[in-house]
Amino acid sequence: MSQHRHGSTSGEAGGVPAFPDLPEATIARLPEYLRALHHLAEAGAETVSSEGLAAAAGVNSAKLRKDLSHLGSYGTRGVGYDIALLVDQVEYILGLDKNRAVCVVGVGNLGHALAGYAGFASRGFRVVALFDADRKKVGEVINGMAVRHIDDLARVAAEETLAIGVIATPPTSAQAVADLLVAVGVTSILNFAPCVLSVPPNVDVRKVDLAIELQILSFHEHRKASLTALPGGRHDDQEAVGS
Amino acid sequence: MSQHRHGSTSGEAGGVPAFPDLPEATIARLPEYLRALHHLAEAGAETVSSEGLAAAAGVNSAKLRKDLSHLGSYGTRGVGYDIALLVDQVEYILGLDKNRAVCVVGVGNLGHALAGYAGFASRGFRVVALFDADRKKVGEVINGMAVRHIDDLARVAAEETLAIGVIATPPTSAQAVADLLVAVGVTSILNFAPCVLSVPPNVDVRKVDLAIELQILSFHEHRKASLTALPGGRHDDQEAVGS
DNA sequence: AGGCGCTTGTGAAGGCGTGCACAAATCGCG
DNA sequence: CGCGATTTGTGCACGCCTTCACAAGCGCCT
Question: Which residue ranges hold the DNA-binding region (chains A, B) (predicted)?
Answer without folding.
Answer: 32-71
